[in-house]
Known about the structure:
This protein has 226 residues and is mainly alpha-helical. It has helices at 5-19, 31-38, 42-54, 72-76, 90-111, 114-133, 138-151, 155-167, 169-175, 181-197, 201-220; strands at 58-61, 65-68. It folds into two domains: 5-76, Arc Repressor Mutant, subunit A (Orthogonal Bundle), CATH 1.10.10; 87-225, Four Helix Bundle (Hemerythrin (Met), subunit A). Helices cover 68% and strands 4% of the residues. Strands 1-2 form a two-stranded antiparallel sheet. β1 (58-61) and β2 form a beta hairpin. The chain starts with a helix and ends in a 6-residue tail after the last helix. 33% of the residues are buried.
Amino acid sequence: MKKLAHEEIIEQMKARIVSGEWKPGERLPTMQQLAEEFKLSRTAVREALRILENQRIVSIEHGRGVFVSNNPDLLEDPTGNMRLLEFGSLLQLLEARLVVEPEMAAFCAQRVSTAQTKRIRELAERMEEEMRQGSDHFTTDVQFHQAIAEGANNPLLAEMLTVLADLSARGRRETDKLPHMQTKAASYHRLIAIAIEERQADQARSLMRSHIQDMINAVNGRGDLQ
């Protein structure tokens, strides 16, 4: 299955760090230089760097640049102990999301800024448009859930969600192939965005729970996805 642009960048950057080409504490090329080197967009590079920073593999210092982490354990195994979860089933990952994301959506509805509600709504609408055009909407899907995590104003929860999203990337594409799943996901996203915009915490929690439970039910009916 073809990797998304930012996934290709993450893979190549991790390989250079592990091989020692980029050493601990070393300043990396600029975002523009990385985009030119990988022959991919700045947007893809920015998303890759955000994920690598959340995984504590790089450090982004505004005004100074991007630096390789000084943590030797992360350099030996960039995904840390969470790597073990790669062997878990999609069902287990969805269950983990079911524990985390409904409350995250409720916190978001209570704490989100006006600018953040606008971005969440825009991402929901963008995903619908990408589906109508038949284009790849996976990145927008991930960004929607991440925007909710950021709106919850809890960095630890946001980092947990990033790890889960990275681990379940392939499985999320597989669930998209299930009957009517794309249409239902787009509807849930739109309704969740409205609930957050209206500061309806209970409704946002309930909708997010139903959204993830719907995917769990679909996977339970298709054991081959595990």
